Amino acid sequence: MERYRVVQWSTGNIGKKALGILLDRDVFDVVGVHAFGPDKVGQDAGALVGRAPIGVAATDDVDALIELAPDCVNYMPRAIDFDLVERLLRSGINVVTTGDFVTGSHHPAELAALEAAGREGGATFLGTGFEPGFANVAAGFLTGACSQVRSVKLVETLDCTTYPVQDVWKVLGFGKPPRQRITQIDPETQRYGLGYFETLDMIATMLGTELDSKDAFVESAVLTQDVNLGWVDYAAGTVGGQRRTYRGHRSGRPVIELAICWTMSDDALDPQWTDPKGFSVVIEGEPRVDATIRFGEPGQDIMTVLMASTAVAAVNAIPFLCDAKPGVITPIDLPITGSPGALTA
Ligand SMILES: NC(=O)c1ccc[n+]([C@@H]2O[C@H](COP(=O)([O-])OP(=O)(O)OC[C@H]3O[C@@H](n4cnc5c(N)ncnc54)[C@H](OP(=O)(O)O)[C@@H]3O)[C@@H](O)[C@H]2O)c1
């Protein structure tokens, strides 16, 4: 059995889950862990994820981690440092990330630089995750059952009260009075969430076509009472929910749509959206497809569940990434697989 020497980069919400999965799977050796937080530097990586010590101390020494010459860096910081990723690739280290990058269609400069760095170092870069990532591949994959497709729509509806990334929610406008009910998203000026636009291109590729244009807009819902989530307080009258819609157009009509409904309250929002919780895929075509997929047990904290699913999408890709052609690949360049090593006794 081939083994893979992996450096886990960051142990935040997703990185912690990923490190646990890497430690559980027989094919991976965790040879290094990067820590940004000074409180984490020097700590044993096992201890950082509530495990027994593994004899690997977390470090902020980038050179030392590169000198380890790992097969892959599992890169999960809050935001991608593209200069760093290029350096890793040029050093011959494959990189998989859950950061905001899927096809690179909205990151043209970075895509070209990553391609060049990968070819120079003989290494491969992949951006994936759950959504963007796995869920979009699943929606596109379902079109494989259809002889004709008029449109593909994926709706994600999540209670986000247990995803404590306060800075990210703040940037998105949560906890602030809404400026307007509906805001257009211009990918040229609003650089957050470009990966969502890129999933539209990915599904178009799965349909053997290209989109003529894309657009996106955000609808805000306002809290009707104060909300205390333990990690943040939101006041009545501020934004407590968003429905983000990304659309890909062809021949003058929307053909691929991704709607993301994120809420910080189940019942104290105006408007009150009624989409079913989970992931809904509707393909208008021949035949029509209507699939609602829910993850986790009823009542289970969905964000914790999906943090692990995000991490496992990256971890599952590592063996394939290490054998892939140098440059940039996308989630649909991976072979069709489930979760090798996941079956429990
Ligand atoms: N595709 C998907 O399905 C999906 C789903 C959820 C999240 N994501 C993405 O996955 C990535 C990780 O998410 P997360 O929730 O784990 O993020 P997070 O917990 O907010 O942050 C991850 C880590 O980033 C490092 N960090 C924080 N501030 C930094 C700074 N100023 N400079 C350098 N590093 C910094 C910290 O590393 P240390 O731990 O070393 O201190 C932190 O633990 C994000 O890009 C997020 O958008 C993708």
Q: How many H/I helical runs?
A: 9
Q: Which percent band covers the strand fraction? A: 25-35%
| SSE arrangement, N to C | EHEHHEHEHEHEHEHEEEEEEEEHE
User: In terms of per-residue confidence, which ranges show pLDDT below 50 for 5 or more consecutive residues?
Assistant: none
Determine the N-to-C terminus distance: 20 Å
Biggest beta sheet summary: 8 strands, mixed
Bound molecules: NADP nicotinamide-adenine-dinucleotide phosphate
| Shape, principal axes of CA atoms | globular
User: For the residues shown, what is the average pLDDT?
Assistant: 96
Structural class by secondary-structure content = alpha/beta
Number of strands: 16
Q: What Rg is obtained from the alpha carbons, in whole angstroms?
A: 20 Å
Describe the structure.
This protein is α/β, with parallel strands linked by helices and 345 residues long. 28% of the residues lie in helices and 28% in strands. It contains nine helices and 16 strands. It has helices spanning 13-24, 45-48, 62-67, 82-90, 108-121, 134-142, 166-172, 194-206, 302-323; strands at residues 4-9, 28-34, 72-75, 94-97, 124-127, 148-159, 182-184, 213-223, 227-228, 233-234, 239-250, 253-263, 269-270, 278-286, 289-293, 327-329. The strands form three sheets. Strands 6, 7, 8, 11, 12, 13, 14 and 15 form an eight-stranded mixed β-sheet that branches. Strand 9 (227-228) and strand 10 form a beta hairpin. Helix 1 (13-24) crosses helix 9, helix 4 (82-90) packs parallel to helix 5 and helix 6 runs parallel beside helix 8 (194-206). The longest helix has 22 residues, at 302-323. It binds NADP nicotinamide-adenine-dinucleotide phosphate. The site of NADP nicotinamide-adenine-dinucleotide phosphate (NAP) has 24 residues, from helix 1. NADP nicotinamide-adenine-dinucleotide phosphate binds at residues 10-15, 35-37, 40, 76-79, 98-100, 129-133, 165, 310.
